[in-house]
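Changelog note: in this version the structure field was regenerated for every chain. One regenerated record is shown below for reference.
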Amino acid sequence: MRRKWLGAVVPVALLCIWEAIWHIEALRMESVSHPWEVAIAFYRGWLDGSILLLTLQTFESALLGFAIAAAIGVAVGVFLGLAPRAERIVGPSIDLMRPVPSVALIPLALMIYGFGVRMEASIVAFACVWPVLIVTIAAVRSIDPGLLEVARVLQMTAAERTFKIVLPAAAGRIAVGLQLALAISLVVAVTVEIVINPRGLGYGMMSAQQSMHFDKMYAQLLWIGVVGWGLSFLSQKALDRWSPQPEAVHGGRP
């Protein structure tokens, strides 16, 4: 139980420092709201549904982009992992596109899709596909060659080999790439909303800042942190459940 509460030490300490700074007149700034005012702003935003609406808008784009990236990254990663020759052909192109910042695609995505979910999701998908793709390729390559030989002996089709041999054997490692991509999806979605897309938590935070409602801005900023923590927590729980346990790997032996 004590270990669970250790993670609250830093947030509580920062909250106390924030409260102390507000009470020290020499350090107080107009742009720093009182923690209690921030709590009230969050409560009001939750009651009128504005924070929930902005959260759903951000989630819509982030999860759509993540789903697209997951589908493409796993499918292409499995193919390239099983076909080293194809990976040598495509590899240089991947290395060329992977370092491109996702926000650099905003003008192109805006020109193609305009404002809205599709524009934001396309940028999120571009950012998220690389960790899924790279981890999937590495996971497939690390599969025991004996398993693939069994598939050949049984004369499995490519689909049967993929779904019965490759994906179950690589699932644990692929899940790590998916967990990383999920965290990236929220970061990129909020960034796009701050920069240009008039929807979601990022846009709501910028609107509050521009209208000098700093308490609302801080409330949404802290809420983004809570949402990110929740996604990380849930994805870690899913990863722990998905990954093979030591006793399962070793047949229950110590």
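Spot check on this record: The chain has twelve helices and no strands. Residues 58 and 200 are 5 Å apart (CA to CA).
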